[in-house]
Amino acid sequence: MADEKTPEPKNQTPVQPKMQVIGQFIRDMSFENVAAQKGAEGNIQPDIQVQVNLDARKRSQDNQFEVLMKLNIESKAKESDQQLFILEIEYGGIFHIENVADDQIHPFLLIECPRMLFPYLRRIVGDITRDGGYPPLNLDSIDFLALYQQEIERRAAAEKEGQPVS
After folding, report:
1. How many separate helices (H) and strands (E) can be counted in the chain?
2. How do residues 28-65 score in pLDDT, each as one tens digit?
3. If pLDDT is split at 50, 70 and 90, which confidence band does 15 have?
4. Distance between the two ends of the chain, CA-based, in angstroms?
5. Which helix (H) or strand (E) holds 165?
6. 52, 64, 65, 67: which could join 113 in a potential S-S bond, CB 3.0 to 4.6 Å?
7. Surface-to-core class of residue 80, CB atoms within 10 Å of its CB (0-12 exposed, 13-18 middle, 19+ buried)
8. pLDDT tens-digit profile of 69-116?
9. Is the confidence at residue 13, as pLDDT, over 80?
10. Distance between CA atoms of 80 and 82, rounded to whole angstroms?
11. Which residue in 78, 108, 80 sits closest to 93, CA to CA?
């Protein structure tokens, strides 16, 4: 009898990552309308600065993670450097993620998950600024891949210099 082997499948497709958004929420939010409190009037040209921070953690349930996007938005008048408003918001999502290798979960959480959350956060920021008496702020798209790469480079440089990585 000949040794019969089961033929190997030739076109075996790799297992695709699976991501499901379980929930989204505002964890913390603060909008301070400084200009209105001081009684500023007139047509003021704003200078808007946006800082983005990301955080992710594993939840106690299997394959579940929480991702937080933290935005700090400051608007000042271009002419006088007078503070117009300050918006701080932490927006989070709970994700069920499967079929992502352990060495790829960190970039997946800090690149792909924020991409899913960002359109909703953009709308909230627009609504808050409009309701605060300003034209709605339509945030520019954020390149989360570039943001992630910058953070990895920053951490590597800090480790090289012997500084604590935060």
Report:
1. 4, 4
2. 999 999 887 776 666 677 899 999 999 999 999 999 99
3. confident
4. 66
5. none
6. 67
7. exposed
8. 999 999 998 888 889 999 999 999 999 999 999 999 999 999 999 999
9. no
10. 5
11. 108
Note the pTM of the prediction, 2 decimals. 0.82
Residue 20 tokens read as 């499901």
Amino acid identity for residue 54 in this structure: L
Read off the tokens for 119. 């359109």
Q: Where are the alpha helices (DSSP H) in 62-112?
A: 102-107
Structure tokens at 94: 């709970």
User: Looking at this protein, which amino acid is placed at residue 64?
Assistant: Q
Residues facing 48 on adjacent strands: 75
Place of tokens 């943001």: 147
Region 18-158: CATH code? 3.10.420.10
Please state, in angstroms and rounded to a whole number, the distance separating the CA atoms of residues 11 and 75.
55
> What's residue 116's pLDDT?
96
d(CA 130, CA 124): 10
